[in-house]
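A.,

Following up on our hallway conversation. Structure tokens first:
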């Protein structure tokens, strides 16, 4: 058996092999050690002749799924090796074979998936100057392909993969560079595998879809894309994964949707927050009023990929408006959606042969609701919603079959009967009748035999060794009739059987066994019936997802008081005009009315705003709300503002300074500069850039110089930009560049306290109120006192008239300055000095005079 184990294992390198032995799945050798560690189960061993003791670890087969899910979640691949012949009839060693390899990107089992997110298997086929990229979510049947080409193909490939955040990504063995880069970017499991040739890939795709050409999918001219997609199918094949429900594929262009890079999506907290990566306090949480898992997943995708083209955006906005306008229709629609479950994943379960009878009953319940949804959406059925309605198929044939075939409340197990509705299948009914008759006979036997024999205490019993028996107390044994055959003696009684009893028993057991077996086969047929209708049901599921996502945006709009954004066309550059804008997420958590609205006006003659103000005054909030409002508009959502006029932006960039990426071994400043470089390379006059505290990870003057030159560069290019900073010196930019303005977030000083007003006003400020904020944060009094002293000294130095000379700002002393320190510096015979050097000098001076 060990030889069988290790021989099988050779054929599945890089996987843990779980082999069915009796009631366990066993791991041996190194796999046993790995599994024992990962699962926290006992490691035992088994003697193997001259080879000594082989490590061994096992999990009970009835709980295997739970354990395997843990392994897959930890990033292992697990090959399941089952017995493929009946152990009862096998001669010698039972034949075993791998029936399934589970990998993070190919699982469909519910407990291994997160219902709120897709579980994508990605594949990238790079070539000189381009790449084909494909994504498949086996658990929903969604299959996507795109291609990139050009100088930045590699970068865009990486970005696209990162955007989908797949569970697993296939790369060709020779793609070393991409492999290295991808490893730094995502935590996805990367599997290197020989890629399908274009021809092999196309054949596999056509076979999968049952078509003779790939033209219907727009794939005929996409060789790299086909290779990427075909390799996914090849990989499924290698891992023995059934994918009957994957029956179509969608090609898409990267140009129709906005590319949000990782740092931007992260700093705007679109679908994951920055504190723990969860959903709390994100835009997604704020907008998510979806009622179905597929609607929730679609809304997440919409948020992650805002639209670029005005007519597409308007189409979504129209649908949201219609839905928002009719609260009654929306409530009714939400009522139906509420009763729907994860149709896509139920169909996928049937397609890959994993669903049980309860899954199909759930699907039946869902399909039965389709007509209701159609009726309830009638009133808002225009544009996008009408298109979605047209894609709803009632699938009455499947529904009828499931109603007739499946019992109302079948058990979880598929092998114990009770799944099929009586009257559906004649032979099955016959077995049930036989079983019932047999049972009835046995049930009545006690009474009939008692009266026939006069043994009042006669009992019918059952044990697993010899089945049904008649038990007679020792005292009445004399009355036992001739046809009783003695089988067993127990303490106070004798046990007998009769030929008639055994006949009936055989009928019962035989009929039951045949019935269970037949039920399973009938069920498998029903499951196939669903699988063969997968395309229709899935089309409907996607239409439902769209209706759900639209109603969610409408619900958010009406619950949270959003308005429809007005799109303006703007050829030369972006336009962002927001009156009374609010931060959707902060507002949602503070409660309506508790948020101070602010205006934004960017574009044309004003493209760069330098925003200053103390800590905690609301600078970041203001920056992010502007970016979020612009993105929400392009998602097709209403926006938190009194009024918003926006031109569709080509990109949005957001950078929040000073964040260590310790995990990837990069310093704060390096990360900041890499991200800044990306913006400077890609931002156009039709983009929006928000920069929060950029340039803080280095020495003050280095940082100021870099912040200065970045701001200046963006201003000269005319990219709409909001730049929040504590470098008040940047306010000087407005004097030299016409399209730059200074804003500040207002505060009121109240004794030693600062009162935050959160109001953005024109004009810069030169105070940061750092010490006041530190006091409010509870920094000890003597530290604060000392800080105030140092500040006074520093400001004393700063009062030495200075001039900032960008891009390398330093203090320059004016000749007529007569302060102590100025005189001392002149004695030193230097032209310039930094404030820190001046402070040290001042300290020395003080010490000298004290002496
Ligand atoms: P800064 O970037 O200036 O340090 P933040 O933008 O982080 O300040 O804001 C600090 C806190 O102030 C936020 O967490 C939020 O609770 C509150 N806040 C910011 N802006 C507003 C506003 N416009 N209305 C109400 N509260 C606000």
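Then the amino acids I'd put at each of the 851 positions:
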């Amino acid at each position: 058996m060990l030889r069988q184990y290790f021989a099988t294992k050779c054929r599945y390198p890089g996987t843990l092999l779980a082999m069915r032995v009796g009631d366990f799945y066993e791991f041996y050798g190194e796999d046993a050690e790995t599994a024992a560690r990962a699962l926290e189960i006992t490691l035992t061993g088994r003697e193997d002749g001259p080879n000594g003791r082989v490590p061994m670890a096992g999990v009970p087969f009835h709980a295997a799924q739970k354990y395997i899910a843990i392994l897959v979640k930890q990033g292992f691949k697990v090959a399941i090796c089952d017995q493929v012949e009946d152990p009862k009839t096998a001669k010698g060693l039972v034949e075993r074979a791998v029936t399934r390899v589970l990998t993070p990107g190919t699982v469909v089992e519910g407990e291994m998936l997160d219902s709120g997110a897709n579980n994508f298997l990605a594949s990238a086929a790079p070539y000189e100057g381009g790449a084909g990229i494909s994504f498949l979510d086996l658990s929903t049947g969604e299959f996507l392909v795109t291609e990139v080409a050009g100088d930045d193909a590699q970068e865009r490939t990486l970005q696209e993969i990162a955007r989908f955040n797949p569970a697993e990504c296939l790369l060709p063995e020779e793609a070393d560079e991409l492999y290295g880069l991808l490893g730094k970017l995502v935590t996805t499991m990367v599997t290197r595998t020989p890629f399908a040739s274009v021809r092999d890939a196309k054949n596999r795709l056509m076979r999968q879809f049952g078509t003779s050409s790939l033209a219907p999918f727009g794939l005929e001219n996409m060789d790299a894309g086909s290779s990427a997609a075909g390799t996914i199918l090849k990989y499924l094949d290698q891992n023995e994964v059934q994918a009957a429900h994957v029956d179509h594929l969608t090609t898409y262009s990267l140009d129709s949707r906005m590319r949000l890079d990782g740092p931007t999506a992260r700093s705007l907290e679109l679908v994951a927050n920055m504190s723990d990566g969860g959903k709390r306090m994100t835009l997604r949480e704020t907008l998510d009023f979806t009622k179905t898992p597929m609607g929730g997943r679609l809304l997440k995708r919409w948020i992650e990929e805002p639209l670029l083209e005005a007519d597409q955006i308007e189409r979504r906005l129209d649908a949201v408006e219609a839905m928002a306008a009719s609260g009654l229709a929306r409530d009714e629609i939400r009522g139906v959606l509420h009763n729907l479950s994860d149709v896509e994943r139920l169909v996928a379960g049937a397609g890959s042969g994993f669903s049980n009878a309860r899954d199909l009953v759930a699907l039946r319940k869902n399909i039965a609701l389709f007509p209701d949804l159609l009726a309830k959406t009638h009133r808002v059925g225009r544009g996008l919603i009408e298109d979605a309605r047209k894609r709803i198929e009632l699938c009455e044939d499947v529904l009828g079959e499931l109603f007739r075939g499946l019992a109302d409340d079948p058990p979880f197990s598929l092998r114990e009967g009770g799944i099929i509705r009586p009257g559906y299948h004649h032979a099955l009914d016959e077995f049930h009748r036989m079983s019932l008759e047999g049972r009835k006979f046995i049930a009545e036997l006690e009474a009939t035999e008692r009266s026939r024999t006069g043994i009042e205490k006669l009992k019918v019993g059952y044990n697993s060794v010899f089945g049904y028996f008649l038990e007679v107390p020792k005292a009445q044994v004399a009355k036992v009739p001739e046809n009783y055959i003695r089988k067993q003696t127990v303490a106070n009684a004798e046990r007998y059987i009769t030929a008639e009893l055994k006949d009936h028993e055989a009928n019962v057991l035989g009929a039951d066994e045949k019935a269970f077996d037949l039920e399973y086969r009938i069920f498998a047929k029903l499951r196939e019936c669903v699988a063969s209708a997968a395309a229709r049901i899935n089309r409907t599921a996607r239409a439902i997802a769209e209706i759900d996502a639209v109603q969610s945006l409408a619900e958010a709009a009406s619950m949270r008081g959003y308005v429809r954004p007005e799109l303006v066309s703007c050829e030369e550059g972006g336009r962002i005009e927001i009156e009374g804008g609010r931060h959707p997420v902060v507002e949602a958590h503070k409660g309506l009315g508790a948020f101070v609205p602010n205006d934004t006006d960017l574009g044309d003659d004003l493209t760069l705003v330098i925003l200053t103000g103390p800590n905690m005054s609301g600078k970041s909030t203001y920056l992010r709300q502007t970016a979020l409002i612009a993105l929400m508009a392009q998602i097709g959502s209403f926006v938190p503002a009194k009024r918003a006029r926006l031109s569709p932006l080509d990109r949005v960039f957001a950078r929040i300074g000073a964040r260590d990426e310790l995990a990837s071994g990069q310093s704060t400043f390096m990360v900041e500069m890499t991200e800044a470089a990306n913006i400077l390379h890609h931002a156009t006059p039709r983009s929006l850039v928000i920069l929060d505290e950029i340039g803080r990870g280095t020495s003050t003057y280095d940082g100021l110089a870099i912040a200065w030159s970045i701001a200046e560069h963006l201003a000269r290019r005319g990219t709409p930009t909001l730049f929040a900073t504590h470098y008040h010196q940047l306010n000087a930019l407005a004097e030299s560049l016409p399209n730059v303005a200074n804003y500040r977030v207002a505060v009121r000083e109240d004794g030693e306290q600062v009162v935050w007003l959160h109001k953005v006003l024109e004009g810069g400020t030169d105070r940061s109120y750092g010490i006041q904020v530190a006091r409010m944060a509870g920094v000890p009094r003597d530290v604060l006192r000392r800080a105030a002293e140092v500040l006074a000294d520093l400001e004393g130095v700063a009062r030495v008239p200075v001039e900032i000379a960008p891009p390398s700002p330093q203090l320059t002393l004016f000749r007529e300055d007569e302060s102590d320190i100025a005189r001392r510096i002149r004695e030193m015979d230097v032209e310039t000095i930094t404030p820190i050097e001046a402070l040290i000098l001042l300290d020395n001076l003080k010490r000298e005079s004290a002496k």
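The chain has 28 helices and 28 strands. Curious whether your intuition agrees with the design.

B.
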